[in-house]
Write a structure and sequence with these properties.
18 helices; Dipeptide-binding Protein, domain 3; alpha+beta; peptide transmembrane transporter activity; D-Maltodextrin-Binding Protein, domain 2; four-stranded antiparallel β-sheet; 618 residues; 21% strand
Length: 618
Amino acid sequence: MRRFAGITAVAAVLGLSACTADPPPPIEQTEPTRTPAPVPQLNTVVVAVDDVGAGFNPHLLADQSPVGNTVAGMVLPSAFRPVPDPARPGASVWMLDESVLVSAEVTSQAPFTITYQVRDEAQWSDSAPVAAEDFRYLWQQMITEPGVVDPAGYRLIEDVGSSGGGKTVTVTLREPYPAWRELFTHLLPAHLVKDTPGGFATSLAESIPVSGGQFHVKSVDRGRGEILLERNDRFWGTPARPDRILLRRGGTDAQLAESMRTGDAQVAQMHGGGSALLAQLGAIPHVRTGTQLQPRVLELTLNGRTAEFADPRVRRAVLGLLDPDLLATVAAGTESAVVAARAQVFAPSDPGYAPSLPPRPGREQSLELLATAGYVPADPATVEATRTPVPEAATTGLLAQGETPLALVLGVPENSPVADAVAHTAADQLRGAGVAATVTTLPPDELYGDALVRGTVHAVVGWTRAGGDPATAAMSRFGCPPAIPGQESALAGPDPAPTPEPAPDDDTVPEGDTAPEGESPDDEIEAAEAQLAAPSNVSGVCDPALESELAGALRGAGDVPAVLTGAQPKLWDLAVTLPIVQDRTVIAAGPGVEGVTLTGAIPAGPLSDAQNWWRTTQ
Protein backbone atom coordinates (compact mmCIF):
# COMPACT_ATOMS: atom_id res chain seq x y z
CA MET A 1 0.00 0.00 0.00
CA ARG A 2 2.87 2.36 0.88
CA ARG A 3 4.53 1.38 -2.29
CA PHE A 4 1.51 2.32 -4.30
CA ALA A 5 1.20 5.68 -2.53
CA GLY A 6 4.85 6.53 -3.36
CA ILE A 7 4.40 5.71 -6.94
CA THR A 8 1.33 7.90 -7.02
CA ALA A 9 3.19 10.84 -5.44
CA VAL A 10 6.06 10.58 -7.90
CA ALA A 11 3.62 10.52 -10.82
CA ALA A 12 1.89 13.62 -9.47
CA VAL A 13 5.21 15.51 -9.18
CA LEU A 14 6.19 14.46 -12.68
CA GLY A 15 2.80 15.52 -14.02
CA LEU A 16 3.10 18.93 -12.33
CA SER A 17 6.59 19.38 -13.73
CA ALA A 18 5.38 18.56 -17.20
CA CYS A 19 2.62 21.17 -16.94
CA THR A 20 5.10 23.81 -15.71
CA ALA A 21 7.72 23.12 -18.43
CA ASP A 22 5.28 23.21 -21.35
CA PRO A 23 2.95 26.22 -20.92
CA PRO A 24 0.52 27.21 -23.64
CA PRO A 25 1.89 29.61 -26.30
CA PRO A 26 1.45 33.31 -25.41
CA ILE A 27 -1.23 35.32 -27.11
CA GLU A 28 0.40 37.59 -29.70
CA GLN A 29 -0.83 41.18 -29.86
CA THR A 30 -0.61 42.72 -33.30
CA GLU A 31 -0.75 46.48 -33.91
CA PRO A 32 -2.55 47.77 -36.97
CA THR A 33 -0.27 48.76 -39.87
CA ARG A 34 0.03 52.52 -40.25
CA THR A 35 0.31 53.81 -43.82
CA PRO A 36 2.40 57.03 -43.88
CA ALA A 37 0.57 60.05 -45.24
CA PRO A 38 1.80 60.93 -48.72
CA VAL A 39 4.10 63.95 -48.82
CA PRO A 40 2.50 66.57 -51.05
CA GLN A 41 4.61 67.28 -54.11
CA LEU A 42 5.27 70.98 -54.43
CA ASN A 43 4.66 72.61 -57.77
CA THR A 44 8.09 74.02 -58.57
CA VAL A 45 8.98 75.87 -61.76
CA VAL A 46 12.71 75.99 -62.53
CA VAL A 47 14.00 79.03 -64.42
CA ALA A 48 17.48 79.00 -65.98
CA VAL A 49 19.23 82.37 -65.58
CA ASP A 50 22.73 83.80 -66.06
CA ASP A 51 23.57 84.38 -62.41
CA VAL A 52 22.17 85.59 -59.11
CA GLY A 53 23.00 89.22 -59.84
CA ALA A 54 24.78 91.88 -57.83
CA GLY A 55 22.05 92.60 -55.29
CA PHE A 56 18.33 92.94 -54.70
CA ASN A 57 17.70 96.66 -54.19
CA PRO A 58 15.89 97.70 -57.39
CA HIS A 59 16.50 101.39 -56.63
CA LEU A 60 20.30 101.15 -56.94
CA LEU A 61 22.09 101.48 -60.27
CA ALA A 62 24.53 98.75 -59.31
CA ASP A 63 21.72 96.25 -58.67
CA GLN A 64 20.09 96.59 -62.10
CA SER A 65 19.91 93.06 -63.50
CA PRO A 66 17.27 90.80 -65.06
CA VAL A 67 17.24 88.55 -61.99
CA GLY A 68 17.14 91.43 -59.51
CA ASN A 69 14.29 93.03 -61.44
CA THR A 70 12.38 89.74 -61.52
CA VAL A 71 12.78 89.09 -57.80
CA ALA A 72 11.76 92.64 -56.89
CA GLY A 73 8.57 92.31 -58.92
CA MET A 74 7.66 89.04 -57.19
CA VAL A 75 8.47 90.11 -53.64
CA LEU A 76 8.07 93.87 -53.17
CA PRO A 77 4.76 95.78 -53.19
CA SER A 78 4.21 98.69 -55.59
CA ALA A 79 1.72 101.51 -55.89
CA PHE A 80 1.45 101.00 -59.65
CA ARG A 81 2.72 98.30 -61.99
CA PRO A 82 3.55 98.62 -65.70
CA VAL A 83 1.67 96.75 -68.42
CA PRO A 84 2.39 96.94 -72.16
CA ASP A 85 0.67 99.81 -73.97
CA PRO A 86 -1.09 98.23 -76.96
CA ALA A 87 -1.17 101.55 -78.77
CA ARG A 88 2.58 102.27 -78.51
CA PRO A 89 5.06 99.41 -78.88
CA GLY A 90 7.70 99.59 -76.18
CA ALA A 91 5.66 101.95 -74.00
CA SER A 92 4.02 101.05 -70.71
CA VAL A 93 0.79 101.99 -68.98
CA TRP A 94 1.10 102.19 -65.20
CA MET A 95 -1.88 100.52 -63.55
CA LEU A 96 -2.91 100.73 -59.91
CA ASP A 97 -1.89 97.63 -57.98
CA GLU A 98 -5.25 96.91 -56.37
CA SER A 99 -3.78 94.30 -54.05
CA VAL A 100 -1.77 97.08 -52.35
CA LEU A 101 -3.87 100.22 -52.78
CA VAL A 102 -7.58 100.99 -52.66
CA SER A 103 -6.96 104.20 -54.57
CA ALA A 104 -4.32 106.71 -55.62
CA GLU A 105 -5.24 110.03 -57.15
CA VAL A 106 -4.20 113.64 -57.50
CA THR A 107 -6.26 115.47 -54.89
CA SER A 108 -4.85 118.99 -55.36
CA GLN A 109 -3.04 120.98 -58.01
CA ALA A 110 -1.80 123.77 -55.74
CA PRO A 111 0.27 122.34 -54.24
CA PHE A 112 0.41 119.23 -56.37
CA THR A 113 -0.79 116.51 -53.99
CA ILE A 114 -1.26 112.77 -54.39
CA THR A 115 -3.28 110.77 -51.88
CA TYR A 116 -2.71 107.02 -51.60
CA GLN A 117 -5.12 104.79 -49.68
CA VAL A 118 -3.32 101.59 -48.64
CA ARG A 119 -5.40 98.48 -48.03
CA ASP A 120 -5.90 97.73 -44.36
CA GLU A 121 -4.88 94.11 -44.89
CA ALA A 122 -1.67 94.96 -46.77
CA GLN A 123 1.23 93.72 -44.66
CA TRP A 124 4.77 92.44 -44.79
CA SER A 125 5.33 88.74 -44.20
CA ASP A 126 6.47 89.46 -40.62
CA SER A 127 3.01 91.00 -39.97
CA ALA A 128 4.21 94.63 -40.00
CA PRO A 129 1.76 96.78 -41.98
CA VAL A 130 2.59 98.27 -45.36
CA ALA A 131 2.11 101.91 -44.44
CA ALA A 132 3.17 105.53 -44.86
CA GLU A 133 6.47 104.77 -43.14
CA ASP A 134 7.52 102.73 -46.20
CA PHE A 135 6.61 105.55 -48.58
CA ARG A 136 8.47 108.14 -46.54
CA TYR A 137 11.55 105.95 -46.13
CA LEU A 138 11.88 105.33 -49.89
CA TRP A 139 11.53 109.06 -50.61
CA GLN A 140 14.23 109.99 -48.12
CA GLN A 141 16.68 107.40 -49.42
CA MET A 142 16.16 108.35 -53.05
CA ILE A 143 17.21 111.95 -52.39
CA THR A 144 20.14 111.27 -50.05
CA GLU A 145 21.82 108.01 -51.12
CA PRO A 146 24.41 107.77 -53.90
CA GLY A 147 23.92 105.62 -56.98
CA VAL A 148 20.12 105.60 -57.03
CA VAL A 149 17.98 105.25 -60.15
CA ASP A 150 16.77 108.55 -61.68
CA PRO A 151 15.55 110.36 -58.55
CA ALA A 152 14.37 113.63 -60.15
CA GLY A 153 10.71 112.84 -59.42
CA TYR A 154 11.42 112.12 -55.76
CA ARG A 155 13.34 115.41 -55.50
CA LEU A 156 10.13 117.25 -56.34
CA ILE A 157 8.49 115.88 -53.19
CA GLU A 158 8.14 118.35 -50.33
CA ASP A 159 6.58 116.03 -47.76
CA VAL A 160 5.08 112.57 -47.22
CA GLY A 161 2.28 112.75 -44.66
CA SER A 162 0.48 109.99 -42.77
CA SER A 163 -3.01 109.60 -41.36
CA GLY A 164 -5.52 106.85 -40.66
CA GLY A 165 -2.99 104.73 -38.80
CA GLY A 166 -0.49 105.04 -41.64
CA LYS A 167 -2.89 103.72 -44.26
CA THR A 168 -3.58 107.11 -45.83
CA VAL A 169 -0.46 108.58 -47.43
CA THR A 170 -0.43 112.20 -48.61
CA VAL A 171 2.46 113.16 -50.87
CA THR A 172 2.98 116.87 -51.55
CA LEU A 173 5.17 117.98 -54.46
CA ARG A 174 6.57 121.41 -55.25
CA GLU A 175 5.55 121.17 -58.89
CA PRO A 176 3.23 119.08 -61.08
CA TYR A 177 4.73 115.76 -62.08
CA PRO A 178 2.94 113.86 -64.88
CA ALA A 179 4.95 110.66 -64.23
CA TRP A 180 3.83 110.45 -60.59
CA ARG A 181 2.49 106.93 -61.11
CA GLU A 182 6.07 105.70 -61.44
CA LEU A 183 6.85 106.83 -57.89
CA PHE A 184 6.86 104.30 -55.04
CA THR A 185 7.40 101.26 -57.21
CA HIS A 186 8.98 98.45 -55.18
CA LEU A 187 8.44 99.74 -51.67
CA LEU A 188 11.02 98.54 -49.15
CA PRO A 189 10.32 97.27 -45.60
CA ALA A 190 11.39 100.44 -43.79
CA HIS A 191 10.98 98.90 -40.32
CA LEU A 192 13.76 96.42 -41.13
CA VAL A 193 16.04 98.09 -43.66
CA LYS A 194 16.53 101.32 -41.74
CA ASP A 195 17.86 99.48 -38.68
CA THR A 196 19.97 96.91 -40.55
CA PRO A 197 23.75 97.45 -40.79
CA GLY A 198 24.44 99.02 -44.15
CA GLY A 199 20.86 100.23 -44.44
CA PHE A 200 19.56 101.14 -47.86
CA ALA A 201 22.95 100.81 -49.56
CA THR A 202 23.88 97.23 -48.65
CA SER A 203 21.25 95.51 -46.49
CA LEU A 204 19.55 93.99 -49.55
CA ALA A 205 22.79 92.85 -51.16
CA GLU A 206 22.23 89.18 -50.34
CA SER A 207 18.46 88.82 -50.00
CA ILE A 208 15.16 90.53 -49.23
CA PRO A 209 14.27 89.64 -45.62
CA VAL A 210 10.47 89.96 -45.81
CA SER A 211 7.85 90.03 -48.53
CA GLY A 212 4.92 92.22 -49.40
CA GLY A 213 4.13 90.33 -52.60
CA GLN A 214 2.96 86.94 -53.78
CA PHE A 215 6.34 85.25 -53.20
CA HIS A 216 9.04 85.50 -50.57
CA VAL A 217 12.75 84.76 -50.85
CA LYS A 218 13.37 81.44 -49.13
CA SER A 219 17.11 81.23 -49.82
CA VAL A 220 19.94 82.62 -51.94
CA ASP A 221 22.95 80.41 -52.71
CA ARG A 222 25.53 82.35 -54.67
CA GLY A 223 27.89 79.38 -54.79
CA ARG A 224 25.35 77.24 -56.61
CA GLY A 225 23.80 80.18 -58.42
CA GLU A 226 20.30 79.60 -57.05
CA ILE A 227 17.47 81.70 -55.65
CA LEU A 228 14.48 79.88 -54.21
CA LEU A 229 11.21 81.77 -53.95
CA GLU A 230 8.19 80.30 -52.21
CA ARG A 231 4.57 81.35 -52.26
CA ASN A 232 3.94 83.96 -49.55
CA ASP A 233 1.20 82.41 -47.43
CA ARG A 234 0.70 85.72 -45.65
CA PHE A 235 -0.22 87.49 -48.87
CA TRP A 236 -3.74 88.83 -48.49
CA GLY A 237 -4.65 88.92 -52.19
CA THR A 238 -4.92 86.24 -54.86
CA PRO A 239 -2.29 83.60 -54.07
CA ALA A 240 0.31 82.61 -56.65
CA ARG A 241 -0.37 79.33 -58.47
CA PRO A 242 3.07 77.67 -58.19
CA ASP A 243 4.39 76.73 -54.77
CA ARG A 244 7.94 77.63 -55.64
CA ILE A 245 10.02 79.36 -58.31
CA LEU A 246 13.65 78.24 -58.48
CA LEU A 247 15.99 80.57 -60.35
CA ARG A 248 19.09 78.54 -61.22
CA ARG A 249 22.29 79.28 -63.12
CA GLY A 250 21.83 77.91 -66.64
CA GLY A 251 25.48 77.45 -67.57
CA THR A 252 26.73 77.35 -71.14
CA ASP A 253 24.48 77.38 -74.19
CA ALA A 254 24.88 73.62 -74.51
CA GLN A 255 24.05 73.05 -70.84
CA LEU A 256 21.01 75.28 -71.08
CA ALA A 257 19.75 73.47 -74.17
CA GLU A 258 20.16 70.11 -72.42
CA SER A 259 18.25 71.38 -69.37
CA MET A 260 15.35 72.52 -71.55
CA ARG A 261 15.50 69.31 -73.60
CA THR A 262 15.27 67.05 -70.54
CA GLY A 263 12.79 69.19 -68.62
CA ASP A 264 15.28 69.95 -65.87
CA ALA A 265 14.42 73.61 -66.48
CA GLN A 266 11.00 74.71 -67.68
CA VAL A 267 11.73 78.39 -68.36
CA ALA A 268 14.89 80.25 -69.39
CA GLN A 269 16.01 83.88 -69.42
CA MET A 270 19.61 84.33 -70.54
CA HIS A 271 21.67 87.43 -71.31
CA GLY A 272 22.78 88.17 -74.83
CA GLY A 273 20.03 86.97 -77.06
CA GLY A 274 22.38 85.81 -79.81
CA SER A 275 21.04 84.04 -82.88
CA ALA A 276 22.97 80.83 -82.11
CA LEU A 277 21.36 80.29 -78.69
CA LEU A 278 17.95 81.26 -80.04
CA ALA A 279 18.26 78.74 -82.87
CA GLN A 280 19.54 76.03 -80.54
CA LEU A 281 16.60 76.36 -78.17
CA GLY A 282 14.11 76.79 -80.99
CA ALA A 283 15.14 73.43 -82.48
CA ILE A 284 13.99 71.56 -79.36
CA PRO A 285 10.46 70.21 -79.94
CA HIS A 286 7.65 72.10 -78.18
CA VAL A 287 9.99 74.76 -76.74
CA ARG A 288 8.76 78.32 -77.36
CA THR A 289 11.40 81.02 -77.69
CA GLY A 290 11.68 84.76 -78.01
CA THR A 291 13.80 87.77 -77.12
CA GLN A 292 13.03 90.84 -75.06
CA LEU A 293 14.90 94.00 -74.24
CA GLN A 294 15.68 94.44 -70.56
CA PRO A 295 15.16 97.69 -68.62
CA ARG A 296 18.85 98.60 -68.46
CA VAL A 297 21.40 100.33 -70.72
CA LEU A 298 25.16 100.12 -70.26
CA GLU A 299 26.89 103.50 -70.36
CA LEU A 300 30.37 104.96 -69.92
CA THR A 301 30.21 108.33 -68.14
CA LEU A 302 33.15 110.69 -67.67
CA ASN A 303 33.61 112.47 -64.35
CA GLY A 304 33.83 116.21 -65.04
CA ARG A 305 34.85 116.89 -61.44
CA THR A 306 38.38 115.68 -62.19
CA ALA A 307 41.02 118.09 -63.42
CA GLU A 308 41.52 116.16 -66.66
CA PHE A 309 37.86 116.05 -67.66
CA ALA A 310 37.08 119.59 -66.59
CA ASP A 311 38.35 120.40 -70.07
CA PRO A 312 35.72 119.52 -72.73
CA ARG A 313 38.46 119.02 -75.32
CA VAL A 314 39.89 116.15 -73.29
CA ARG A 315 36.44 114.65 -72.82
CA ARG A 316 35.68 114.78 -76.55
CA ALA A 317 39.06 113.34 -77.44
CA VAL A 318 38.86 110.43 -74.98
CA LEU A 319 35.37 109.49 -76.14
CA GLY A 320 36.61 109.74 -79.72
CA LEU A 321 39.32 107.18 -79.00
CA LEU A 322 36.70 104.59 -78.00
CA ASP A 323 34.98 102.29 -80.47
CA PRO A 324 31.33 102.05 -79.34
CA ASP A 325 30.58 99.17 -81.73
CA LEU A 326 33.36 97.05 -80.25
CA LEU A 327 32.30 97.90 -76.71
CA ALA A 328 28.72 96.94 -77.57
CA THR A 329 29.83 93.56 -78.90
CA VAL A 330 31.81 92.89 -75.72
CA ALA A 331 28.76 93.82 -73.62
CA ALA A 332 26.32 91.68 -75.60
CA GLY A 333 28.61 88.67 -75.88
CA THR A 334 28.08 88.22 -79.61
CA GLU A 335 27.68 90.63 -82.50
CA SER A 336 24.25 89.22 -83.36
CA ALA A 337 22.98 90.06 -79.87
CA VAL A 338 23.93 93.74 -79.97
CA VAL A 339 21.16 96.29 -79.50
CA ALA A 340 23.25 99.43 -79.84
CA ALA A 341 22.21 102.45 -77.78
CA ARG A 342 22.97 105.54 -79.83
CA ALA A 343 20.91 108.31 -78.20
CA GLN A 344 20.99 110.26 -74.96
CA VAL A 345 18.15 109.62 -72.46
CA PHE A 346 16.11 107.47 -74.85
CA ALA A 347 16.76 103.71 -74.84
CA PRO A 348 16.23 101.61 -77.99
CA SER A 349 13.06 100.19 -76.42
CA ASP A 350 11.50 103.66 -75.95
CA PRO A 351 8.85 104.81 -78.45
CA GLY A 352 10.73 108.09 -79.08
CA TYR A 353 14.09 106.49 -79.71
CA ALA A 354 16.09 107.45 -82.80
CA PRO A 355 19.89 107.19 -83.15
CA SER A 356 21.39 110.65 -82.67
CA LEU A 357 25.09 109.85 -82.14
CA PRO A 358 27.10 112.46 -84.06
CA PRO A 359 29.94 111.38 -86.36
CA ARG A 360 32.78 109.95 -84.31
CA PRO A 361 36.11 111.77 -84.60
CA GLY A 362 38.94 109.65 -85.88
CA ARG A 363 42.04 108.75 -83.93
CA GLU A 364 44.11 111.53 -85.49
CA GLN A 365 41.49 114.17 -84.77
CA SER A 366 41.22 112.99 -81.17
CA LEU A 367 44.98 113.15 -80.69
CA GLU A 368 44.98 116.67 -82.14
CA LEU A 369 42.34 117.69 -79.62
CA LEU A 370 44.48 116.29 -76.82
CA ALA A 371 47.46 118.19 -78.18
CA THR A 372 45.54 121.48 -78.04
CA ALA A 373 44.85 120.67 -74.38
CA GLY A 374 48.58 120.16 -73.81
CA TYR A 375 48.75 116.36 -73.95
CA VAL A 376 51.43 115.28 -76.42
CA PRO A 377 53.66 112.19 -76.74
CA ALA A 378 56.40 112.34 -74.14
CA ASP A 379 59.59 110.51 -73.30
CA PRO A 380 58.69 107.94 -70.62
CA ALA A 381 61.95 108.77 -68.84
CA THR A 382 60.79 112.34 -68.23
CA VAL A 383 57.24 111.52 -67.15
CA GLU A 384 56.36 111.46 -63.47
CA ALA A 385 55.50 108.11 -61.98
CA THR A 386 51.77 107.55 -61.53
CA ARG A 387 49.68 105.21 -59.49
CA THR A 388 48.16 103.95 -62.73
CA PRO A 389 50.09 100.92 -64.00
CA VAL A 390 51.10 101.30 -67.62
CA PRO A 391 52.03 98.20 -69.66
CA GLU A 392 55.45 98.39 -71.25
CA ALA A 393 53.88 98.18 -74.68
CA ALA A 394 51.93 101.38 -73.96
CA THR A 395 54.83 103.49 -72.71
CA THR A 396 55.93 104.43 -76.20
CA GLY A 397 54.12 107.63 -77.11
CA LEU A 398 52.64 108.06 -73.64
CA LEU A 399 50.61 111.28 -73.62
CA ALA A 400 51.58 113.84 -71.02
CA GLN A 401 51.09 117.48 -70.17
CA GLY A 402 54.61 118.53 -69.32
CA GLU A 403 55.79 115.84 -66.94
CA THR A 404 52.26 114.77 -65.94
CA PRO A 405 50.87 111.79 -67.88
CA LEU A 406 47.25 111.56 -68.90
CA ALA A 407 46.33 108.85 -66.36
CA LEU A 408 42.68 107.79 -66.07
CA VAL A 409 40.92 105.40 -63.71
CA LEU A 410 37.71 103.71 -64.92
CA GLY A 411 35.45 102.71 -62.04
CA VAL A 412 33.15 99.68 -62.11
CA PRO A 413 30.68 98.59 -59.41
CA GLU A 414 31.40 95.27 -57.72
CA ASN A 415 29.74 92.10 -59.06
CA SER A 416 29.11 93.56 -62.51
CA PRO A 417 30.98 91.25 -64.92
CA VAL A 418 29.62 92.78 -68.14
CA ALA A 419 30.54 96.32 -67.09
CA ASP A 420 33.94 95.08 -65.95
CA ALA A 421 34.66 93.46 -69.32
CA VAL A 422 33.64 96.60 -71.20
CA ALA A 423 35.72 98.83 -68.91
CA HIS A 424 38.83 96.73 -69.50
CA THR A 425 38.28 96.83 -73.26
CA ALA A 426 37.89 100.61 -73.12
CA ALA A 427 41.08 100.86 -71.07
CA ASP A 428 42.88 98.75 -73.68
CA GLN A 429 41.77 101.10 -76.44
CA LEU A 430 42.91 104.16 -74.47
CA ARG A 431 46.29 102.64 -73.63
CA GLY A 432 46.76 101.89 -77.30
CA ALA A 433 46.49 105.64 -77.93
CA GLY A 434 48.93 106.62 -75.20
CA VAL A 435 46.52 107.19 -72.29
CA ALA A 436 47.56 105.54 -69.03
CA ALA A 437 44.20 103.93 -68.26
CA THR A 438 43.34 101.33 -65.63
CA VAL A 439 40.20 99.78 -64.14
CA THR A 440 39.19 99.65 -60.49
CA THR A 441 36.27 97.81 -58.93
CA LEU A 442 34.59 99.48 -55.96
CA PRO A 443 31.56 98.98 -53.69
CA PRO A 444 28.66 100.80 -55.38
CA ASP A 445 28.02 103.25 -52.56
CA GLU A 446 31.68 104.28 -52.64
CA LEU A 447 31.89 104.42 -56.43
CA TYR A 448 28.80 106.60 -56.89
CA GLY A 449 29.57 108.64 -53.77
CA ASP A 450 33.02 109.61 -52.57
CA ALA A 451 34.94 108.23 -55.55
CA LEU A 452 32.97 110.41 -57.95
CA VAL A 453 32.76 113.50 -55.79
CA ARG A 454 36.42 113.42 -54.74
CA GLY A 455 37.56 112.63 -58.28
CA THR A 456 39.37 109.38 -57.50
CA VAL A 457 37.70 107.82 -60.55
CA HIS A 458 37.68 109.57 -63.92
CA ALA A 459 34.85 107.56 -65.43
CA VAL A 460 32.18 105.04 -64.49
CA VAL A 461 31.08 102.07 -66.58
CA GLY A 462 27.73 100.82 -65.31
CA TRP A 463 24.08 100.13 -66.01
CA THR A 464 21.37 102.78 -66.04
CA ARG A 465 17.63 102.21 -65.89
CA ALA A 466 15.55 102.06 -69.09
CA GLY A 467 11.84 101.94 -69.74
CA GLY A 468 10.85 104.74 -67.39
CA ASP A 469 9.82 108.34 -67.97
CA PRO A 470 12.40 109.96 -70.33
CA ALA A 471 11.93 113.43 -68.83
CA THR A 472 12.74 112.08 -65.38
CA ALA A 473 15.82 110.35 -66.73
CA ALA A 474 16.99 113.52 -68.52
CA MET A 475 16.66 115.73 -65.45
CA SER A 476 18.25 113.13 -63.19
CA ARG A 477 21.28 112.56 -65.40
CA PHE A 478 21.89 116.00 -66.92
CA GLY A 479 20.37 118.45 -64.43
CA CYS A 480 22.67 121.10 -63.03
CA PRO A 481 24.06 120.77 -59.52
CA PRO A 482 22.34 122.79 -56.80
CA ALA A 483 23.34 126.24 -55.68
CA ILE A 484 23.08 128.05 -52.38
CA PRO A 485 21.41 131.51 -52.41
CA GLY A 486 24.03 134.19 -52.15
CA GLN A 487 26.72 132.08 -53.80
CA GLU A 488 27.50 131.35 -57.40
CA SER A 489 26.04 128.19 -58.86
CA ALA A 490 28.57 125.60 -59.84
CA LEU A 491 27.22 124.95 -63.29
CA ALA A 492 29.25 123.13 -65.89
CA GLY A 493 28.56 124.02 -69.46
CA PRO A 494 29.93 122.69 -72.73
CA ASP A 495 31.94 125.79 -73.69
CA PRO A 496 34.64 126.76 -73.35
CA ALA A 497 35.63 124.82 -70.28
CA PRO A 498 33.20 123.57 -67.61
CA THR A 499 33.41 124.15 -63.92
CA PRO A 500 33.37 120.83 -62.11
CA GLU A 501 30.62 120.11 -59.62
CA PRO A 502 31.75 121.17 -56.14
CA ALA A 503 32.63 118.76 -53.41
CA PRO A 504 29.95 118.23 -50.75
CA ASP A 505 31.71 120.41 -48.20
CA ASP A 506 31.35 123.40 -50.54
CA ASP A 507 28.36 125.64 -49.84
CA THR A 508 25.98 125.12 -52.61
CA VAL A 509 18.25 122.97 -53.91
CA PRO A 510 18.09 119.80 -55.77
CA GLU A 511 18.52 119.70 -59.55
CA GLY A 512 15.88 121.91 -61.10
CA ASP A 513 14.22 122.57 -57.74
CA THR A 514 13.58 125.69 -55.72
CA ALA A 515 13.15 125.77 -52.00
CA PRO A 516 9.50 125.42 -50.96
CA GLU A 517 7.82 128.15 -48.96
CA GLY A 518 8.55 127.85 -45.29
CA GLU A 519 11.73 125.84 -45.73
CA SER A 520 14.52 127.29 -43.65
CA PRO A 521 17.89 128.22 -45.19
CA ASP A 522 19.53 125.55 -43.06
CA ASP A 523 17.18 122.90 -44.46
CA GLU A 524 17.91 124.15 -47.96
CA ILE A 525 21.65 123.96 -47.42
CA GLU A 526 21.35 120.48 -45.91
CA ALA A 527 19.32 119.23 -48.89
CA ALA A 528 21.79 120.70 -51.37
CA GLU A 529 24.80 119.23 -49.60
CA ALA A 530 23.11 115.82 -49.47
CA GLN A 531 22.56 115.95 -53.21
CA LEU A 532 26.13 117.00 -53.90
CA ALA A 533 27.38 114.07 -51.83
CA ALA A 534 25.06 111.69 -53.70
CA PRO A 535 24.79 113.09 -57.23
CA SER A 536 22.39 111.61 -59.75
CA ASN A 537 24.25 113.51 -62.47
CA VAL A 538 27.19 111.12 -62.52
CA SER A 539 29.32 113.38 -64.70
CA GLY A 540 28.75 116.56 -62.69
CA VAL A 541 28.56 118.44 -66.00
CA CYS A 542 25.50 120.25 -67.33
CA ASP A 543 24.38 122.93 -69.78
CA PRO A 544 22.77 125.85 -67.89
CA ALA A 545 21.05 126.99 -71.10
CA LEU A 546 19.29 123.61 -71.30
CA GLU A 547 18.27 123.47 -67.64
CA SER A 548 14.92 125.25 -68.01
CA GLU A 549 13.94 123.00 -70.93
CA LEU A 550 14.65 119.84 -68.95
CA ALA A 551 12.83 121.22 -65.89
CA GLY A 552 9.83 122.08 -68.06
CA ALA A 553 9.79 118.59 -69.56
CA LEU A 554 9.80 117.13 -66.05
CA ARG A 555 6.69 119.20 -65.26
CA GLY A 556 5.05 118.12 -68.52
CA ALA A 557 5.24 121.57 -70.09
CA GLY A 558 4.97 121.67 -73.88
CA ASP A 559 5.68 118.81 -76.25
CA VAL A 560 7.96 116.71 -74.02
CA PRO A 561 9.14 114.20 -76.68
CA ALA A 562 9.96 117.09 -79.03
CA VAL A 563 11.87 118.91 -76.27
CA LEU A 564 13.96 115.85 -75.43
CA THR A 565 14.59 115.08 -79.09
CA GLY A 566 15.64 118.65 -79.70
CA ALA A 567 18.01 118.48 -76.71
CA GLN A 568 20.00 115.60 -78.20
CA PRO A 569 22.72 117.71 -79.92
CA LYS A 570 23.31 119.74 -76.76
CA LEU A 571 23.56 116.62 -74.61
CA TRP A 572 26.05 115.03 -77.00
CA ASP A 573 28.00 118.30 -77.06
CA LEU A 574 28.61 117.97 -73.32
CA ALA A 575 30.81 114.96 -74.18
CA VAL A 576 30.21 113.17 -70.90
CA THR A 577 28.14 110.05 -71.61
CA LEU A 578 28.63 107.27 -74.15
CA PRO A 579 25.59 104.95 -74.28
CA ILE A 580 26.76 101.51 -75.36
CA VAL A 581 24.08 98.84 -75.46
CA GLN A 582 20.66 97.92 -74.15
CA ASP A 583 20.58 94.50 -72.58
CA ARG A 584 18.60 91.81 -74.36
CA THR A 585 17.74 88.31 -73.16
CA VAL A 586 16.64 85.10 -74.80
CA ILE A 587 13.51 83.74 -73.17
CA ALA A 588 12.13 80.23 -73.57
CA ALA A 589 9.42 78.01 -72.13
CA GLY A 590 9.19 74.22 -72.43
CA PRO A 591 6.12 72.02 -72.73
CA GLY A 592 6.10 71.19 -69.00
CA VAL A 593 4.77 74.56 -67.88
CA GLU A 594 1.73 76.63 -68.69
CA GLY A 595 0.90 80.30 -68.22
CA VAL A 596 4.26 81.66 -69.47
CA THR A 597 3.59 84.42 -71.98
CA LEU A 598 7.26 85.25 -72.81
CA THR A 599 6.30 88.93 -72.99
CA GLY A 600 5.90 91.79 -70.57
CA ALA A 601 6.25 95.52 -70.12
CA ILE A 602 9.87 96.63 -70.46
CA PRO A 603 10.17 97.92 -66.85
CA ALA A 604 8.74 94.70 -65.43
CA GLY A 605 10.50 92.16 -67.65
CA PRO A 606 9.24 89.02 -69.41
CA LEU A 607 8.91 86.95 -66.22
CA SER A 608 6.47 89.30 -64.52
CA ASP A 609 3.61 86.81 -64.91
CA ALA A 610 5.25 84.12 -62.72
CA GLN A 611 2.29 84.11 -60.34
CA ASN A 612 0.23 82.52 -63.12
CA TRP A 613 2.63 79.71 -64.01
CA TRP A 614 1.89 76.06 -63.36
CA ARG A 615 4.18 73.10 -63.88
CA THR A 616 2.24 70.36 -65.62
CA THR A 617 4.94 67.65 -65.43
CA GLN A 618 7.08 66.68 -62.45
